[in-house]
Structures are given as structure tokens and as C-alpha cells.
Amino acid sequence: MAKLVRAVLLLFITIQILSACSIDTTATTKSIKYENEKYKFILTLPSKWRDNYDVVELKHEDIMAFRFITKVGKGELFRVEVWPKDQWESKGIELTKIIHISKIGELGDTVYAFDTPTDVQYDPNNQKDKEQYTLLEQDVEQIKASFEVKK
């Protein structure tokens, strides 16, 4: 009887191991490449961001901004800004002393900056908004570090 129980248990464990090995997890664990061909930059986002963010483009004067926002609640997590170098030198450097903005790259006459919000970006009374924002916000520094200029 003990041998039969042991054999059934061994068979059960073997089936579990084989089942686990056959599951394709690449779709859920593969990071996301955000590539902007026009402005020549790349970011790597964690897989948990898949279907949880949108990118909204804004233009103010000659500065292009790409706002990365949550799908739920539309809270801004960060933005990548593309500045003409002369404007960065006359206005952007001064902004680094006032708000959460920093230069993260340069290509020719273009400066890339990374900006994070200074206020709460979700409704504190909406638990779903807060949870999604908090889940994604913890990756912002890692995403910033992944920034690449595409030459």
C-alpha cells in the first residue's frame, strides 16, 4: 500500500513538473520596447505595463513631450521631452532646479529630458486608480535608466 501511494505521488509530481515546463511564459514575462522612430529614442518597460499604459503626445512651442499615463485614471507616471538644445540651455537647465526634470540624453541639436509629476496623479478615493498607479510607478526609475538614443 505504501509503495502504491508513493508511486501515485511520484506520478502526480512528475505530471505537475511536465505541465509547468510546457507553459509558454515568454508572452507575459517579455519586456516591452517603446521605440519612437521620429524622435529617435527607445525605452524598455516591464512586462506588467502591457495594456496598462497609454502615451499621449503634446507639443508646447518647440518642445515635444510624450506623457506615459495609466489607462485607469489617466495618471501621468512620467514624460520624455525632446528639446532643441538651445532652448534646453536657456530654459531647461533652470527648470532642473525647480521641478523633477533631468537631462537623460543628447543627439546633435536635440536634448532628451525625463520629467516626473510633483503632485498626486490619481484619485486617492478610487482604490483601483491608486493600485494601478502604485504598481506602475515603482518601475519609473528603472525605465528612466533604460533610455537609449537611437542613432
Task: Please give a structural write-up.
With 151 residues, the protein is of the alpha+beta class. The chain is 35% helix and 33% strand. The longest helix has 21 residues, at 2-22. It is globular and about 75 Å long. The model is unreliable at 7-14 and 18-27 (pLDDT under 50).
Question: Using only CA atoms, what is the Rg?
Answer: 22 Å
Helix content: 25-40%
Secondary-structure-based class equals alpha+beta
Which strand order does the major sheet show? Answer: 3-4-5-7-6
Proportion of β residues?
Answer: 25-35%
What's the number of helices? Answer: 5
- Low-confidence parts lasting 5 or more residues at pLDDT below 50? 7-14, 18-27
Gross geometry: globular
Quote the distance from N terminus to C terminus: 69 Å
The major β-sheet equals: 5 strands, antiparallel
Mean pLDDT, all residues? 86
Element pattern in H and E: HHEEEEEHEEHHE
Secondary structure: number of strands: 8
